[in-house]
Amino acid sequence: MSRVFKVESSLFTYYDHVNDTHKFIDRTLRIVFVLLMFIGLFIHYRKDFVDPIWYLEPHYLLIFHTILSELMRSYMQWKHEKNRNEFKFTLSQLAFAIVLLFIVLTSINIGWF
What we know:
With 113 residues, the chain is mainly alpha-helical. The chain is flat, with a radius of gyration of 17 Å. The protein has 4 helices and no strands. It has one domain. It starts with a helix and ends with a helix.
């Protein structure tokens, strides 16, 4: 895909921030999600892990955090990068990851894994 969009691709772009605003928002987002995980753990512990709240379970929080951070990264790339194809490449990587996650999660239910 990097050839199609004519961008330089790197395998791990978790710490490639576009600017200082992106760095601040990314760190804030990570702190908020870690706090949400601890809050979810505390709430589920108080309920003896019976009838958990689905949106406070760690795997849902991690999926939502990944999607939200990649959307934020693509927005910052669209807004501040000189090469406009960077955000398209990031969105295509996100779409691929979502499709792959969907396939894996649905195949668990039919017995492939």
